[in-house]
Specification:
Blueprint lengths: L7 E6 L2 E6 L4 H7 L10 E3 L4 E3 L8 E4 L5 E3 L10 E3 L3 H16 L15 H8 L23 E3 L9 H9 L6 E3 L6 E3 L16 H5 L5 E3 L3 H8 L5 E6 L20 H11 L3 E4 H21 L6 E2 L4 H10 L13 H17 L6 E7 L3 H5 L15 E4 H10 L21 H4 L6 H15 L17 E8 L2 E9 L1 H12 L7 E5 L18 H16 L10 H11 L5 H7 L10
Parallel strand pairs: 1-7, 12-13, 12-15, 14-19, 15-16, 18-19
Antiparallel strand pairs: 1-2, 3-4, 5-6, 5-7, 8-11, 9-10, 17-18
């Protein structure tokens, strides 16, 4: 019976009656009822307020009685008295044919595909019982775009689901990707199909994170790591970013948010690295410089607000999109670049190793770090400070390739000299973490008082844009936080238009921050996975004995023995950089 509620409608799905909100789709109603309808192009990013509504794959077709044809459930809105059958022979057959048609024009190279066993099209074909390719389409023959240092675009594997387009244009507002061509020549790519390196792409990797096939993947650097590890003339060291430890376990069947720090260290040592270090050490170093820079700007009428500069994708975003604001970001290099510099100077000298024999490998949750490590202004004497960058996914593949039983590994500690870290550096892995870490230090330096409660919980959460006012002595420090480049755009527009009221702003390109980075295990828009990773980051912070960057004994020793003090001439030479206006294409 209908409830006659003006906000709901009464529908029937597979013989079961439901009252549902009147403006939702058949797919949403079925999900609420626990009735699964397969999808492929559909992508509902609840927290990011974006939905891919292309309805191009036709995989979610259902029977809506009263109409003569099947309808796509992802875009068809329910109506009063609607009767839906999701599991009829007609609907099941239509889905199977849709997948068979997609496969007919898709390269038949599953075994060598970089997303084999992690491809949504492959999984869907298995789920729908597609065991052979019945038709042979006009095979696409697009050359791979390997122009960038960060991502590979293989248009021959594009199925025109347009998820990447939604992510790039609606969520990140970069405007790089769009549909082009018709028929068998239809693909998604940058304007005029120019190489990615010539576009304004920030390499945030969010398009890679949502692509269901291998049309978009990261540049694979695992072979470079194996080559270095097997070169007896090289001293190979590795650093791991804070977000890795709360996500890597997912690749080995562990629950999202499982902290695997100790197992991670053990695995890397068994792979043959000469030393295993924590990027968190360099995050503490970043705070020493960044907090000092913020205080200096406040006390000496410098440019405000100051924006954090740890995220290379957001830095590239401002260079392309807001070049008039390039004096706003902090001049600090990112933690993993700082680590590489210190490794090839301080560490090399301390251990008596020729810097030219040191290979620095970074394990990052981000594909933009691959491009960042090659930026000319971040090199020294025309040589990279970070030689190789691999993602969380790539490291997981390498551990499996090495035959290491990751789940049953014992825990190990990071090596010293560059391995000590504090809780402040751990929270770099989530949105709000960098500015909170900076405040833990800035507060004590500005007030001369010990900070009893180090947790600035008003800065935490997953809202796209957040703000807080923190009492620091006699002043209220106004803080802004944005994650996701679409939200960053709003913040930057306010700064440009003179509407910003903040002293400091943290920006991260990826939704959720580094925990949701483009190089992390695929979570396909599942917000709960990102939330669990964030909870684990804060849990790791609470487990630390030291929770303020300026209390890290190895950082204190580094300044005493090598750098002098924050913002010193040597610190500026090694740890700070500049930005440049880039063409917007």
């Amino acid at each position: 019976m209908s409830t006659n509620n003006k906000d709901t409608v009464h529908i029937t799905i597979n013989g079961q009656e439901f009252d549902v909100p009147k403006d939702i789709t058949i797919l949403e109603a079925s999900n609420r009822a626990g009735i699964k309808i397969p999808t492929l192009c559909h992508l509902d990013l609840h927290d990011l307020k974006a939905v891919n509504k292309a309805a191009s794959c036709r995989v979610c077709m259902v029977e809506a009685h009263g109409r003569d044809v099947l309808v796509p459930s992802c875009v068809t809105t329910v109506w009063e008295g609607m009767e839906v059958t999701t599991n009829s022979l007609q609907a099941i057959t239509a889905r199977r044919i849709a997948v068979e048609l997609l496969l007919s024009n898709h390269p038949n190279e599953c075994f060598t595909c970089s997303k084999n066993l992690d491809c949504e099209l492959q999984s869907l074909a298995h789920e729908l019982g597609v065991r052979e390719i019945k038709w042979s389409g006009e095979k696409q023959n697009f050359p791979k775009d390997i122009s960038s240092d960060a991502l590979v675009r293989d248009a021959s594997k594009c199925i025109m689901c347009r998820r990447c387009e939604t992510m790039c244009n609606e969520v990140q507002t970069c405007g790089i990707l769009s549909a082009m061509g018709r028929g068998f020549d239809a693909i998604v790519g940058p304007a005029f199909n120019i190489p990615m390196v010539e576009s304004s792409c920030t390499y945030c990797g969010q398009c890679v994170a949502v692509c269901p096939t291998a049309a978009l993947t990261e540049v694979n650097h695992t072979y470079k790591v194996w080559e270095a590890l097997n070169d007896p003339d090289k001293h190979v060291i590795v650093q791991t970013a804070p977000a890795i430890r709360v996500a890597l376990g997912e690749l080995f069947g562990m629950e999202p948010g499982t902290i695997v720090t100790g197992k991670l260290v053990t695995a890397l040592k068994r792979m043959g690295f000469n030393s295993v270090f924590d990027t968190d050490f360099a995050a503490d170093l970043t705070i020493m410089e960044e907090a000092s820079e913020l205080i200096n700007r406040i006390e000496n009428n410098g440019t405000l607000p100051m924006l954090t500069s740890c995220c290379p994708a957001w830095v590239k975003f401002i260079e392309h999109q807001f070049p008039e604001l390039l004096d706003v970001p902090s001049t600090c290099k990112s933690p993993h670049i700082m680590f590489g510099i210190i490794a090839k100077t301080y560490y090399a000298k301390k251990l008596g190793i020729d810097p030219n024999k040191i290979v620095v490998v970074s394990v990052m949750p981000c594909i933009a770090k691959k491009a960042e490590s090659a930026r000319p202004e971040l090199t020294k004497d025309h040589k990279n400070n970070v030689d190789i960058v691999v993602t969380t996914r790539e490291l997981g593949a390498m551990i499996k390739e090495a035959g290491i039983d990751f789940s049953n590994l014992p825990d190990s500690d990071f090596d010293h000299v560059l391995g000590e870290s504090t809780g402040a550096s751990v929270i770099f892995g989530t949105t709000g973490g960098v500015i909170e870490a900076a405040l833990r230090t800035a507060y004590e330096w500005m007030t001369g008082e010990e900070l009893k409660d180090v947790e600035f919980k008003q800065l935490r959460g997953l809202d796209g844009i957040r703000e807080a006012s923190v009492a620091v002595g006699d002043m209220n420090l106004n803080i802004g936080i944005a994650h996701g480049l679409g939200n960053a755009r709003k913040i930057l527009e306010d700064i440009r238009d003179g509407k910003s009221k903040y002293h400091a702003i943290e920006i991260m390109a990826c939704p959720g921050g580094c925990i949701g980075g483009g190089g992390q295990p695929y979570h396909h828009g599942n917000d709960e996975i990102v939330k669990k990773r964030q909870e684990a980051i804060y849990k790791e912070d609470r487990s630390k004995t030291l929770r303020k960057s300026h209390e890290n004994p190895e950082i204190i020793k580094l300044y005493e023995e090598f750098l002098g003090k924050p913002l010193s001439k040597k610190s500026h030479e090694l740890l700070h950089t500049h930005y440049e206006k880039r063409e917007r294409i």
